[in-house]
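Example A, followed by Example B.
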Amino acid sequence: MHFKMKGIKILVAVFQLLAIIPLLAQTSGFHYFDHRKLTDIQGQVLSIDLNEVYGKKSAFLMISIQTEDQRLFKVEVCPQWFFATDIAVGMKVWIRGSQLENAAGKLYLIAQEISLHGERVALRDSKGFPLWSRHGAGNESRNGSGGRGKR
């Protein structure tokens, strides 16, 4: 019986280690929304891209913004399917988000809300949980496909 319990404990430890390995591989490029690093930027959309930021789950809308003081930001907006508002290169936008700096020293923003032509679109709740996620607080406020995140 003693050997059986010890074998089970070892097996559980091995499975836990195997579960951690993929997470360790992600940490070098991993980033997260930090509500303590909120900032507002305003500027012009330079480019619009779709990237698989978090693996192959969903393509994320990514935009590049140049602010009035000539700073360049790469902005992670949300999954493409969640964003129901038209956006185009050259548009003036206001974005509130969590500011990060990547390894190359470039400015990166994870958007919490975005305003285009006076229409404000909420993307994350006050704690930074994505409104498109079933686990995010505030998920109950979505109004279906036509009102995703709109205020």
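Example B, a separate protein, is given below in the same form.
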Amino acid sequence: MPTVDTIATQQIMNYFIKVGHSPLLIGQAGCGKTQIIKGLLNDLTTKTDEYLQQIVNFNFYTDSMLLQTILE
């Protein structure tokens, strides 16, 4: 469920993307960072063919070799 804060955060992130800067979200576990990013990526990929998305889950055990295997 979108809130005023999540919509505002997505809008600010859209501005960063439009001017060629990569936004970074920082916060405690459970504050909604993943959901904000998923919503932003869904908006970007449905409105234009310029962007594609692929979700890769990370955890404590994810190392560079596992990431490379997932990406390949």
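On Example B: The mean pLDDT is 89.
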